[in-house]
Design goal:
globular; Rossmann fold; 2 domains; 9 helices; 29% helix; eight-stranded mixed beta sheet
Length: 330
């Protein structure tokens, strides 16, 4: 029986990085070099290599993320492929994975993986992560999960995964939502399914001009005003607690929404949802000022969702609230 075939899309990142003689670490390895560094892949699947970028993920732009999604959708037309692996830097992996998840309607898994240690490290984690990702991509058990992040044996939904440590090999978590599954002793185990709203999956554009503004004690509306006056197309407001601000911020939010600039409120707290409950500059006042509420999404994920939804509204004319709603109820 022949092995399944998967596509490996390489974009750079620490998994393909090495130190220069001067000490700083930079992306260096080609897709072919990365593939050759994990000969055990030949025991898991036949690999079709697609080298898309060779950059650090701190340089990844929304347009680059869109190109990853387009490449996945193009490859998905090939019925001979069992799944897809995207080798990506960890700094912005969660954002790329979520954007792909929003734009991909296929059943075959899209597995994002990378490394915390560069390829010259005495004990690199990249090869093991890449091998696990290939196992997930080739596994029938992973069908229907959409895009996932696979690091250190964990499998996390793209919507929920977030980087929680700068150096630990266990860099990603889904916090209180929990992981989808794991790879243990070479076996893929899926613990639960996940909802996948597909109303944005036909979108083939993003609106990159979305600002993310985080509140802290005593801040006023100056950053919101700067975003509004700077030509942004939308704002994600990472508010306090349950989705609270202060009267000065509320006044600026009202000016934004009156100007047709959507403001999506999320919380700076890592877990839990926002709700329009408090007055005196709190969430209830933000709602009256025209702000939308972003459920349990964290700031960087809400920004990706708003980028896609704004592009979809421009194409279809569908109200923004209607485009966002299925993604905020889960």
């Amino acid at each position: 029986m022949s092995l399944p075939e998967i596509a490996l899309i390489t974009t750079g990142g620490t998994i393909a990085a090495r130190p220069l003689p001067s000490g700083e670490v930079v992306v260096a390895d080609s897709g072919e070099e990365l593939l050759a560094s994990v000969p055990e892949l030949a025991e898991v699947a036949r690999v079709r290599l697609v080298e898309l970028f060779r950059i650090d993920s701190s340089l990844m732009t929304p347009q680059d993320m869109l190109e990853i999604a387009r490449r996945v959708r193009a490859l998905d037309r090939d019925e001979s492929l069992a799944g897809f692996v995207v080798a990506h830097g960890t700094d912005t992996m969660e954002e790329s994975a979520y954007l792909v998840d929003l734009l991909y309607a296929g059943e075959r898994p899209v597995v994002f993986t990378g490394a915390q240690r560069n390829a010259d490290d005495p004990a690199p984690d990249g090869p093991g992560n890449l091998l696990d990702a290939a196992r997930i991509a080739a596994s029938p058990e992973a069908r229907g999960l959409g895009a996932v992040v696979a690091m250190a044996g964990r499998i996390d939904a793209a919507r929920d995964a977030t980087k929680v440590h700068t150096t630990s090999l266990e860099a990603f978590s889904s916090l209180d939502r929990g992981k989808l599954g794991e790879v243990a002793d070479g076996a893929v185990r899926i613990f639960r399914s996940r909802p996948r709203p597909l109303n944005l999956s036909a979108t083939d554009a993003v609106e990159p001009r979305v600002a993310l503004v985080k509140l802290a004690a005593g801040m006023d509306g100056a950053l919101l005003r700067a975003a509004r006056e700077g030509g942004t197309a939308g704002i994600v407001l990472e508010a306090l607690g349950l989705g609270n601000a202060n009267p000065g911020v509320v006044r600026e939010v009202e000016l934004c929404t009156e100007a047709g600039l959507p403001v999506l409120v999320v919380s700076r707290v890592p877990s839990g949802s926002v709700a329009p409950v408090y007055g005196d500059g709190g969430g209830s006042d933000l709602a009256r000022a025209g702000a939308l509420f972003g459920g349990s999404l964290i700031g960087q994920k809400a920004r990706i969702l708003l980028m896609v939804a704004l592009a979809a509204r421009r194409r279809s004319g569908t109200p923004l609230e209607e485009l966002l709603a299925p993604h905020l109820r889960i």
